[in-house]
Each structure stands twice: as structure tokens, then as C-alpha cells.
Write a structure and sequence with these properties.
The protein has 288 residues and is α/β, with parallel strands linked by helices. It contains 10 helices and 12 strands. It has 2 domains: 4-109 and 257-287, Rossmann fold (3-Layer(aba) Sandwich), CATH 3.40.50; 113-253, Rossmann fold. α4 (111-121) crosses α5 (138-149) and α9 crosses α10 (276-287). The chain is globular.
């Protein structure tokens, strides 16, 4: 909880922008970490529609915010209004952290770090695995970068926009000299894709599930799938994780990815290493 009696005219402002954001637990654990280190900051969430994004970015300078996290649907579009990107954000073409440095807006991406540490936390070895990746946006790019680093054998991408899938495929080839397979979304949900029987791991990197939407997974077609990972999280299990566990598969959602990417964001914002134990405790308490 924010210690409001500490807020003064000198208190530094951090935030989260996205649409929607009312489900977000980032303010809970970020403020817990700030309080634990007795730092004069406060972290708030701002629901910003796509049409208001340009004006919102301008306020970073005029209101002298120190930095923001960026979530769906703004991770790619926000780039056009930033001054520069770090190497990872430039590679991924997506930003989830903006830091104000001497009135310059610098974009970063900590999603890959978050996903990699979530895999380690859950003791997941992806070497040699064949992965079905749902999504072709900023989160999917971060996930793919980690999958390649971890030695997966094959990645098959399914996305609701096939045009986006083609762009994603070309990006992967240009960025990593890696050829990924793509198939259309209807082939996935109808269980007709020839790739499905090869899948060891299913990863959802779309926003589906954020508001408890159900992904029509063809469970009978992915009998060999042993692990399901949902990048999405909410206060309850996501429908995908809940259904996967009913099918007897190991499954986890995006809470730990959120925590670890948030810890790296904290370091970028403040210059201090995040008290990860404090953040995890606050997150768990909020979820209960």
C-alpha cells in the first residue's frame, strides 16, 4: 500500500499505461518495493485509449514523469513518439518500459527477461521442444527471442491476422536468421493444422484471457502437448490454464513473468535492484 503521508511536492511519479489497466497488479508490487527501499516515488495506473496515446506520451515530458510501463495495446505504436530505443527494444520492435532521461524518452523491453526468468522459476527446459505460439505482436516477439535462445527445435505461429503472421515470420528471419512455420487461426481452433500433432508446448502470447475470454484450443489434436504457458494473467487462473490443468497438463500463467519484468523495470526506473521478495509477497497477497 502506498504510504500517502510520504507524498510531497517532490515525490517522483511512475506509472503504467494501457487499455484496459484496471486488472493490473503492477501498482501493488511496485509501490511495495518503493516503500521497502524508502524511495520517494509513487506508481499509478492510467487507462489510455489508442486515440489518446500521443497526448499521453507528451505528458511524460510536461508532467515530468520519471518513467512508465507500457502494456497492451500500445507496445508497438508508442515507439514512433520516443527519442531512442535500447538494443533489445529495437530488435523486438516493441517497448514495455519508457524512462525519461534528461527530457529524452528512452524505450526498453523487459518482457524477454521476465519470460526467461519465469521459465527458470518453473524449472522448464525447452531444448529440442516443438512449440505452438499463439500471437504475433510485441509479447510474441519477446517470447520467440527466448525460445530461440533456449534451443527449441521448431516454432509454429498461429495468429488471428494472417498478415501479421507473415510479418512476424519475416521479422524472425531477418532478426535471428530463423525460419518459423505459420498457419492460420482457423486451422488451429478447428484442429485441422498438420502441425498440431507435433506440438510439445503451447504458449499464448495474445491478449485473449485478459478478460476471461476462452481460447478454443483443439485439445484432442494436441495430445502430445505436455506444457501450456499463458503470458496473460489475472486475479484468477486464466481460462487457458484452468482448462489445460483439467486435461492433466502442466500449466502456468503470466504472473511470474509480470513479476520478473517488473523487477527489471524497477531497476531501470530507480537505479536500485528490486527487492524481489517484497514484490512477490505483495503480488501473492493481492492475488489472495
Amino acid at each position: 500500500m502506498v504510504q500517502q503521508n510520504r507524498i510531497t511536492a517532490r515525490t517522483n511519479l511512475l506509472g503504467l499505461i494501457g487499455h484496459p489497466v484496471d486488472h493490473s497488479l503492477s501498482p501493488v508490487f511496485q509501490n511495495a518495493a518503493l516503500n521497502a527501499l524508502n524511495l520517494d516515488y509513487v506508481y499509478l495506473a492510467f487507462d489510455i485509449s489508442t486515440g489518446d496515446l500521443m497526448d499521453a506520451v507528451r505528458t511524460l515530458r510536461t508532467w515530468r514523469l520519471k518513467g512508465i510501463n507500457v502494456t497492451v495495446p500500445h507496445k508497438e505504436k508508442i515507439i514512433q513518439w520516443l527519442d531512442r530505443l535500447d538494443d533489445t527494444a529495437l530488435l523486438l520492435g516493441a517497448v514495455n518500459v519508457v524512462v525519461v532521461k534528461d527530457e529524452e524518452l528512452v524505450g526498453y523491453n523487459t518482457d524477454g527477461i521476465g519470460f526467461a526468468k519465469a521459465l527458470d522459476f518453473n524449472q522448464i527446459n525447452l531444448n529440442g521442444k516443438q512449440v505452438a505460439l499463439l500471437g504475433a505482436g510485441g509479447a510474441a516477439r519477446a517470447v520467440l527471442s527466448v525460445l530461440i535462445e533456449r534451443g527449441v527445435r521448431k516454432v509454429i505461429v498461429f495468429n488471428r491476422s494472417f498478415e501479421r503472421s507473415l510479418q512476424f515470420q519475416q521479422w524472425a528471419k531477418n532478426s535471428f536468421a530463423t525460419v518459423i512455420e505459420i498457419d492460420n487461426w482457423e486451422s488451429f481452433i478447428n484442429g485441422q493444422s498438420s502441425f498440431l500433432s507435433q506440438v510439445d508446448v503451447l504458449i499464448n502470447a495474445t491478449s485473449l484471457g485478459l478478460s476471461q475470454e476462452i481460447i478454443e484450443v483443439p485439445w484432442n489434436g494436441i495430445d502430445n502437448c505436455e506444457l501450456v504457458i499463458d503470458v496473460v494473467y489475472n486475479r484468477e487462473e486464466t481460462p487457458l490454464v484452468r482448462e489445460a490443468r483439467k486435461k492433466g497438463k502442466k500449466a502456468f500463467d503470466g504472473k511470474m513473468m509480470l513479476l520478473f519484468q517488473g523487477a527489471e523495470s524497477f531497476r531501470l526506473f530507480t537505479g536500485f535492484e528490486a527487492p524481489i521478495g517484497v514484490m512477490e509477497k505483495a503480488l501473492n497477497e493481492a492475488l489472495r
